[in-house]
Amino acid sequence: MIGFSQDSASGWIRSYEIDQLKPQIESAHELLHSGKGPGSAFTGWMKLPDSLDIHELERIHRAADRIRAQSDILIVIGIGGSYLGARAAIDMLTPTFSDLLPREKRSAPHIVFAGNHLSADYLYDLLETIKGQRISVNVISKSGTTTEPAIAFRILKQWMEEQYGREEAQRRIYVTTDKSRGALRKLAVQEQYETFVVPDDVGGRYSVLTPVGLLPIAVAGIDIDAMLDGARDGMHHWQNPDPDDNPCYRYAACRNVLLRKGYQIEVMVQYEPSMQYLTEWWKQLFGESEGKDGRGLFPAGVANTTDLHSMGQYIQDGQRILFETVLSVEESKHTIVVPADDDNGDGLNYLAERSLHEINEKAARGTILAHVAGGVPNLRLTVPERTPYWFGQLVCFFELACAISGYLLAVNPFDQPGVEAYKDNMYALLGKPGYEQKKAELEALLAERDS
Ligand code: PA5
Is ligand 1 within 6 A of the CB of residue 146? Predict the structure, then answer.
C-alpha cells in the first residue's frame, strides 16, 4: 500500500494533537460515508471502480483500439478536471521520450491537449503540426458549456470536417459529457458522435477514473483495468476512521494540524520529472476543494532536484509558512549506474557503479534533513512503483484525503463557486448576451482605472 510517515514533522505535530482531532475525523468520515455532508450529491467517485458499468468499460476499450488504429495523433480537448487527470496518468506512465520515436517504433498515437487555455499561438501551432497526419479528437466537458474547450472544439471540428468530410469527421470525434444536458451533448446527438457519459454524481476533479480520464489513458496504451484495481484496493483499505490505522486520514490530520499552526502552503515534492502533472492534478484537487470561505491550504509543487536550484533557496530559508509533502517512488523502472572513469577528472569516482536511483534517493533524504533543520515540516508518502495500479491507488488516496480534509475545514469539498467570478467578467467583457448591465459596469471601472 501507499506509505505515509510524519517522522520528519514530529517536532511540529504532537500525538495529542492528532488525538484531539479524532472525533472531528470520525465525524468527517461519517458525513462522507453516510452521504449527509455538504456536496454529498458528488461523492459517486467513492464507489467508482465497482460502479463502472462493464459494458461501458468494454466500449472504452473498443473506442481506444479504434483511435489507436486510425490515428497518429489524438487531440484531447478539456480543462481542469476534464484534462489534468488524463495528462497526469499519461505523463507518469508512458516512456518520457516516446513522442520522439519514429512512427514504426511507437505503440500508441501522440496525445496532445487543447482547450485548456485561450492561447491563439498554441492552437495555431497545433493546426500547423497536424496537417497531413491522421487525427482523432476526444472532447471532454461535463457541463458541455465551458468556454475554453468549446472554442477549441469549434475550431478543430471545422478543421476535421474540411480535412475528412463530415462523415469521416463524425467517426473520428469522441465526446465525453453529461448524459443529457449541455450544448456538447446536443451537438453530439445531432452529429451522431460516439459519446461517453460523465456520471452525475462525480465532479470534474474527481473524475479521472470515469470515461473522462479512462478513454485518453487507454489510447496511450496504459492498463486502465490495473488502474481501477489500484483504486478499488485503496478504497477498501482506507475505511477505518481512526487516523492511527488509516494513513490516508493521518495525512489529512497532519496537514490540518500544520495549517492550524500557520503553515499555510503545502508543497508537493517529486523527484521524478514524469510526475509533474500528477502534482498539477493534486494542486487542482486540493486547491479547488479546500480553498473557499477564506480557508484552506495553498497547494504548490516543486520538481526536484531541478527546483532545488531555484525554489530550494526559498524553501530552505524564506518565510516559514510552508510545509512539504515528499512523494517518493521506491523502485525505478530501469537501472542506470554511474560509470567508473580511470582519470576521475570530474571527481565523481566516489559514485562509480552506484545507481542513479540511489543517488536520487540520497538527494531526497539529504534535502529533507536540510529543510527540517531549516524549519520546514516534512510529510512523506511512498509509492512502490510507477505503474497503473499505483497511479489508481494514489488517485484514491488523495481523493479520500481531500474529502476528509475539506470536511475537517467545514467547507464543501465538492463545489467550486469561486470559479464563476472570472467567467462572469470575461463573458461581460466579451459581450455575451444577458451580460449587458455587467459589461457597462466593468467597462466604466476599467475606464476609471485607465484614466
Ligand atoms: O473540478 C471541476 O469541476 C472543474 O475543474 C471542471 O472540471 C472544469 O471547470 C471543467 O468543467 P467542464 O468539464 O464542465 O468543462
Answer: yes
For residues 273 and 306, the answer to whether their CB atoms sit within 8 Å is yes
Pocket of ligand 1 contains residue 416 by CB under 6 Å: yes
Q: How far apart are CA 230 and CA 235, in angstroms?
A: 9
Separation of CA 44 and ligand 1 centre (Å):
16
Strands (E), 242-397: 265-270, 298-303, 322-329, 378-383
Residue at 449 is within a domain: no
Query: Which pLDDT score, from 0 to 100, does residue 383 have?
Result: 97
Q: For residue 451, what pLDDT band results from cuts at 50, 70 and 90?
A: confident
Shared domain for 248 and 111, answered yes or no, is: no
Q: What is the pLDDT of residue 420?
A: 86
Cα 244 to Cα 394: distance, rounded to the nearest angstrom: 19
For residue 194, is it left (φ>0), alpha (ψ between -120 and 50) or beta? beta
Total of domains in the chain? 2
Q: How far does residue 374's CA lie from ligand 1's centre (Å)?
A: 38
* 357 carries an active-site annotation: no
116 CB within 6 A, ligand 1 = no
Whether 371 sits among the annotated catalytic residues: the reply is no
- Looking from the CA of residue 146, the nearest atom of ligand 1 is 15
Whether 309 is catalytic: yes
Residue nearest to atom 12 of ligand 1 (CA): 141
Quote the domain boundaries for residue 211.
46-222
Pick from 410, 395, 415, 399: nearest CA to 28? 410
User: Are 91 and 190 in a shared domain?
Assistant: yes
Measure Cα distances from 167 to 20, 162, 265 in Å: 63, 11, 51
